[in-house]
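Handoff note, outgoing to incoming analyst
You'll be picking up this chain. Sequence as last confirmed:
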Amino acid sequence: MRDNAYGAFANLGSALAPVRGVRLDGGGFFASKGAAFSLILILLVLTVSALAPLLMPHERDAMNLDSILAPPSAEHVLGTDDLGRDVFTRLIYAGRFSMLVALCSVAIALAIGVLLGAVAGYFGGAADAAIAVVIDLFLSVPVFLVLLVAASAGGGRIWIVPLVIGGTSWMETARVVRSILIPLREEGFVEAARAAGAKDVRIVVRHMLPQALPAVVVSATVGFAQAMLVESALSFLGFGVQPPVPTWGNMLQNAHVFIGRAPLAAIVPGFMIFITCLSFNYVGEGLRRALAIER
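Most recent structure output, in case you need it:
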């Protein structure tokens, strides 16, 4: 697995070869055992979650009122919840929805952040000033209060949650992209592209944004962990994805009341949130080393 992953990094390195200032070092990523192990763990969680319908012995929402808050057994490895549902089955299914929400949130945040950062960094002037005001405004408001209000207004529908999280977490990406593109505006390759008649959009997308790729990739991995934490917090407070759709956050919210009788029902989803977010942070640090920016 290590050799295959290293080969993938080498191929990515070839793709990034034309990008000025980017030095990709696959060995730098795997030099950290934490990053390599975290990547394997994330891939394992993703694979098992994706194959949940094929692997799980129980239905996701199947209730057994004769087996409420049952302790771990051969039939129910992690016991059952307050409705007699298999905790292990719901935990695996919850990984699908928790990661899907985080992935969509990061995609929305990156789309907004890269777009606004590119506009501000390339055009400057009034566009830069206006976007800077918007960024400062979003950074100044109590984001979690906005999240609570917006998620509450959305009624906990699953597609509302990533829109809310992504729409309130794009600012750092925009600032990073802007800061990278500003000094590139006067570079010779940009001037040459303009002289050749290239349109602004092509110049930005083809020649300038690749310079911001390493920072955007690292921001995405760290943002994934943050989005998962925010979704879990919203679900724990009752404003996130609503049951019966399981996420690790709403499983924790539902089980904490019964932690004395069925501790695993609360401890295990909390542990999965912790270990998954920690793994994404380690992967982000490994990518920061592998996608090194030469100064």
